[in-house]
Design a protein that fits this description.
alpha/beta, 4 helices, BirA Bifunctional Protein, domain 2, 194 residues, 8-stranded mixed β-sheet, 3-stranded mixed β-sheet, 30% strand
């Protein structure tokens, strides 16, 4: 797995660079993991109904509206994914294990893709696949401005609000969280039983 640490980067710039990494992944046959965060913005996927009270940026992923901001760990995957369902399971398994260790009450909801504590959404995911390689990824709220995130319902889901690791009592800096996530993803994608 080749790592790309981009730090804080505007969404539009990251989206352009992700296309470049995707093209590289198509050529070299390797898995490329991008870790970054974005200044406050709202992106909308192909399932978005429109009519938002905030300025939005179109994204070519699935799903509806997602808020990005500083204090969020965004992991973009340009991974070899000849079988998207198997790829998706491996990503989910790594995050399930992350939450099992940090915040066991978090559950994945397949009907409303993402990770939740009751009606509080802590992480969102959305992927696209092109030429057998994945695009986009997972946004995990670590220490975000929840007021900004809750200006819209996460993923346009009724009765759902955003939360974060910090809001749920988990204190973990970005460096250690990133290191732990990389370890779990490496384990998940190298498990011969999956």
């Amino acid at each position: 797995m080749i790592l790309h640490h981009w730090g804080l980067i505007p969404y539009e710039e990251a989206r352009q660079k992700m296309d470049e990494v995707h093209a590289t992944a198509c050529r070299d046959g390797r898995n490329h993991l991008i870790l970054c965060s974005h200044p406050l913005c709202y992106t909308v996927g192909s399932d978005d109904p429109g009519g938002w009270p905030v300025v939005v940026i179109p994204a070519d992923r699935g799903g509806s509206i997602t808020c990005h901001s500083e204090g969020q760990l965004v992991a973009y995957f340009c991974f070899q994914a000849p079988e998207p369902a198997a790829f998706y399971r491996k990503v989910r398994r790594a995050y399930d294990e992350l939450f099992a260790q940090l915040l066991p009450e978090v559950r994945y909801d397949a009907k409303r893709p993402g990770w939740y504590i009751d009606n509080r959404k802590i992480a969102s995911l959305g992927f696209r696949y092109r030429k057998g390689v994945s695009l986009h990824g997972v946004s995990l709220n670590v220490n975000v401005d929840l007021k900004a995130h809750n200006r819209v319902a996460p993923c346009n889901l009724d009765g759902i609000i955003a939360t974060s690791l910090l809001n749920e009592g988990v204190l973990l800096d970005d460096e250690n969280l990133s290191r732990y996530l990389i370890q779990l993803l490496s384990q998940s994608f190298h498990d011969p039983s999956s």
